[in-house]
Design a protein that fits this description.
Shape: rod-shaped
Number of helices: 1
Distance between the termini: 181 Å
Strand content: under 5%
Mean pLDDT: 87
Number of strands: 2
Helix content: over 70%
Largest sheet: 2 strands, antiparallel
Radius of gyration: 62 Å
Length: 151
Amino acid sequence: MGMKFDRMKDGYNRYQVDDLIGELNMHISTLERSNEAYRNRCAQLEEQVSRLRANADSPVEHLREKEDAASQMVAIAMKEANTIVATARQNADVIVSEALLNARLMLADIVKLSDETEDAKGTIRRQTERISRLLDEFERVPVPGADLLDK
């Protein structure tokens, strides 16, 4: 702002100097307001940077938390699956044991029925033989006057 002032008797033109000083004061005032606005904006940006830095760890931490939760869920699922498999094996063992027991009981019943059948066959044979002997021993008694029937 190399401004030239008119020279007067006692120095420079006072009005020109006063006008320049007024302009410079207004310019200084404008610069101070701009400077204050920039300072406020810098403070806001610094605060925002601080928040962003604090939150920058958050996604990573969030990811770790999610991974930990997923690992825990997998562990729980594996534990439940192992429990289900163990219970199924136990139930299968019980079912097989019950089936074998039922088969043994049925086989015992079949053997018993077979023995009873053999006993019954023997009894029937003996009774049939007795009846046969009785029939063989049965003598026909001559009936008097049977010849009259032929006539």
